[in-house]
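Reply to dn_fold:

You asked what the input looked like. This is it:
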Amino acid sequence: MTSTISNATLTVTLTEAVTLNGTAQGSTNTLSLPNIDEISKRIVTVPTSEKSIISFHASDIGPGTFLEGDVRYVRITNKDDANFVILNIEGDASTDFSVRLDAGVSYIIASTIDGTGVVDYIDITGATLEDMATIKATADTSAVDLEIFVASV
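and this is what came back:
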């Protein structure tokens, strides 16, 4: 079977807009990620107990599981209007770190065309990078909705 889907370039534009003392101080930065041919976009409700929301693997794919070498972009956005969520980013050698994602805030992971996806991507000690394995989430006070967008080559 020959696919009818053509590769495309994902364009990510970040804009900060603020005027201080009458002078614009913001900026716009654009990242283009070519050869994207797979995307996953979903909204999940995260409870106050830790749940896996994204997994990365060397050879297996499935619901919420992506090929670690092919991932080029991940965006997780907290769609709640009041509550925060804790993201726990785990490596395959038990290294992990956590970040607080306040209401309305996004967390972005990107790997360029010359990158290796999320292979050799994280380490809490800074000594030896390891493959990203899982992203888990825990809502703080009550359940929150997260929008998850993943793009792969």
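The mean pLDDT is 91.
Hope that clears it up.
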